[in-house]
Amino acid sequence: MNFFQSFHRSIVDPDYYKEIVSFSFFRPFKYLVSLLLISSLISGVFHTWHAFSLTDGLPVYLAEIFKKIRYENGELHPERETPYMPNKSYIAQALDIHFNVEGTYSLLPDSLLIVDTAATPSKYENSSTWVVLGKRQVFLTFGGVYLKTLSYSTFMLESLKGKNIERKIKNYLQGQTLSFFLFYFTRNIIRMAGALLFGILFLSFATYIFSMRRVVSLRDIFKMSCFAVSPISAGVVISAAAGVRWQWIPYIFLFISSMVLLRGVRANIGKIENNTTE
Fold first, then answer.
1. Under DSSP, is residue 183 helix (H, G, I), strand (E, B) or coil?
2. Is the backbone of residue 15 left (phi > 0), alpha (psi -120 to 50) or beta?
3. CB neighbours of 68 closer than 8 A, spacing ≥ 6?
4. Whether 228 contacts 264, CB under 8 Å
């Protein structure tokens, strides 16, 4: 039976869980690895697609951040007096999109990013600023401690000459599609692995502890839980396709997984009772 058949049956067919209890532990492990990689891959593709959107993706908010800035001959030329802080809401939205969260970065200080053509490495020490755009370099600080100086050649400011900034930013991002996708794919693997592991442990112990009739062993419940978490990965992929940031999605679909597991446990209880009767 291939992965997709197992995925389908694990959600809709309670009788499949009668077979699962006879599997070796390698079979659930193999299924989980496939579930993790495939769902992370598909959601990574959708995240990349939405991140590059000209409607509500990174180009929109990055264009607002850099709208009044020109970059020519290796130097930054803001069209207003510096230092100044770009609108934090645009920075927060861009970070939320990139890290696929909702509202997390709106809690950061207003001075997260400052444009200051007279900046020096020591000027913003002991401040809440993270990034300073200087005349020829970018200064990175964290916790009031100077970390590193980067050249503008590292970034995309060469793309910001002239008009139609949103399109130029998108063109730059598309040139970095593989890098962005690998970042999203790796991030999804880490977050999905945590969500699936939590789901399996929660479902296994909760089902066993609160079971009124412990006919099915914890070992078998654990194996069934490895397949019962399929709705969690399905929910993540669906939310990624819809452009919904999914930090809470796995825990919402955990309820559906619990219903799936309960049906599987009941099917096994019925099987055990029938064998006992016979």
1. helix
2. alpha
3. 78, 79, 80
4. yes
Burial of 155 (0-12, 13-18, 19+ CB in 10 A): middle
Contacts of 194 (CB under 8 A, 6+ apart): none
Backbone angles phi, psi at 73, to 5 degrees: 55, 35
Residue 125 has phi, psi (to 5 degrees) of: -65, 150
| Alpha-carbon torsion, ordered 20, 18, 258, 26, to 10 deg | -10
Q: What is the mean pLDDT of the chain?
A: 84
Determine the residue type at 43: S
- pLDDT score recorded for residue 203: 93
Whose structure tokens read 């995925």? 7
Q: Which two tokens stand for residue 8?
A: 């389908």
Mean pLDDT value of segment 122-151: 78
Q: Residue 103: is it exposed, middle or buried by C-beta count within 10 angstroms (0-12/13-18/19+)?
A: exposed
Residue 90: pLDDT above 90?
A: no
**pTM score:** 0.82
Helix (H, G, I), strand (E, B) or coil at 119: coil
Q: Which of 6-15, 29-38, 146-155, 239-248 has the lowest mean pLDDT?
A: 146-155
For residue 160, give the DSSP letter.
Answer: G
> What mean pLDDT is predicted for residues 7-15?
93
Task: Read off the tokens for 127.
Answer: 């401040």
pLDDT digits (tens, 9 = 90+) for 97-120: 888 888 778 777 777 888 888 887
Would you say 124 and 138 are in contact if contact means Cβ atoms under 8 Å apart? no
Between the CA of residue 15 and those of 9, 34, 243, 265, what are the distances in Å? 9, 22, 34, 10
Asked if 115 and 69 count as a contact pair (C-beta separation under 8 A), the reply is yes
Report whether 225 contacts 204 (CB < 8 A). Answer: yes
Assess contact for 254 and 31: CB atoms under 8 A.
no
